[in-house]
Structure formats: C-alpha cells, structure tokens
C-alpha cells in the first residue's frame, strides 16, 4: 500500500494567520485595510478563474504570488512582495500538523510507502527540510517541478509510479474536495478528505 499526502492545509499549517502576516508588513507601505478585508481579498484572488485556468505555480511561483500580494493588500510594492515571499520560503512560517510525524513513522514501519503530492512552488522542499520532515517521504511530487497540478490525474499517476505502486493500492489525504478527493479518485486511488473523512494523522494510521 501507499499513502499520498497533501502539503499545505493537511501536513503543513501556517504558524500565524496569513492575513495578519500580510497586514503586519503591508501597513509599512500604507495599507489601511483590516485583517478581515485582506483575508477576503486573498481568498478571492487565490480562487479567481485566472488562478485555475492554468498551472498556478511555475517554478518559483513568484509571478503568481506577486499578484496575490497585490490583490490582497492593494499594495504593488516590490519590497512588500519580496518580504512576504521570503517569509513563506522558510520553515518557521509553518508547523507540522500535530501527530503527523509519529504517525508517518509508524505507517512506514508497517512497510507502506509514502509520498507528498502538492500544488506548490519550488520552495516546498526547503520548507520540508527546515521542518525536518523531508526524510519521511519516498517521493515528493511538487506541481511546479512536474508541470502538473491537482486535480489533474497525471500528478497522482506520477506519484504512484514513483512509489512503484498501482493507484488502486494507494490512498490520498488532502483538505480540498476538488483537487485532492476528486482528482485522486479519478486516478483510481482511494481518497480521504482531511477534516471530514479523517480528522488527524492517527485517524489516517488507523484506517490505512
């Protein structure tokens, strides 16, 4: 068997609310929005059609995130973008979901193979290294590196191939119903929605 895991929102969570981090730095450049407004703008920008029509993260993802910062804060300062981009390049901007490391160790000890399958830019590997969890995975599939993005079944196929397993023997866990659950099931994998089908990595360990 194989376990595929989404990164942001499942394995990794932000250390501080994203809107508050954006606003803290944007105020230095004249931003007068509230945290709620920044959060609403962020969600609208992130989920807008222009972000879903093509692969979001090309290489470093800088073009995508520059637009997200601008639309979230109303500020076009390159210095602001660089500050935020650098902040989210480091492991200390995130924390690993409690219980994940221990559960993944036990799952691997049972002989299962593990992979991260993430829509992310090329910063992800550094973040996993910073958080000392890169070694937990037999494969890491980053959309910006493989030029494929969930829910495209191709990225799940590539993950299964990297593990040397057929899709029907793999389970994918992620927090996005469309990208993670539908995408994985379209490939032939099992899929569990984080926060609904499973609430913790102990649940994952118990069910797999």
The proportion of strand residues reads 5-15%
Low-confidence stretches: none
CATH topology of the largest domain: Rossmann fold
What CATH first level of the largest domain would be assigned?
Alpha Beta
Mean pLDDT: 96
Sequence of strands across the biggest β-sheet: 5-4-1-6-7
Total helices: the number is 11
Protein name: Haloacid dehalogenase-like hydrolase domain-containing protein 3
Pfam family, one: Hydrolase
Organism: Chlorella variabilis
Give the key terms:
single chain; 208 residues; alpha/beta; DNA polymerase, domain 1; five-stranded parallel beta sheet; two-stranded antiparallel ribbon; 7 strands; HAD-like_sf; HAD-SF_hydro_IA_REG-2-like; HAD_sf
Structural commentary:
The structure is a single chain. By secondary structure, this protein is α/β, with parallel strands linked by helices. It has two domains: 2-13 and 95-207, 3-Layer(aba) Sandwich (Rossmann fold), CATH 3.40.50.1000; 14-92, Haloacid dehalogenase-like hydrolase (DNA polymerase, domain 1, Orthogonal Bundle). It has eleven helices and seven strands. The protein has helices at residues 18-26, 35-47, 49-52, 62-73, 78-87, 100-109, 124-130, 143-146, 153-163, 177-187, 201-207, and strands at 2-5, 12-14, 94-96, 113-118, 139-142, 170-174, 190-193. It has a five-stranded parallel beta sheet, sandwiched between helices. Strand 4 (113-118), helix 7 and strand 5 (139-142) form a beta-alpha-beta unit. It is elongated.
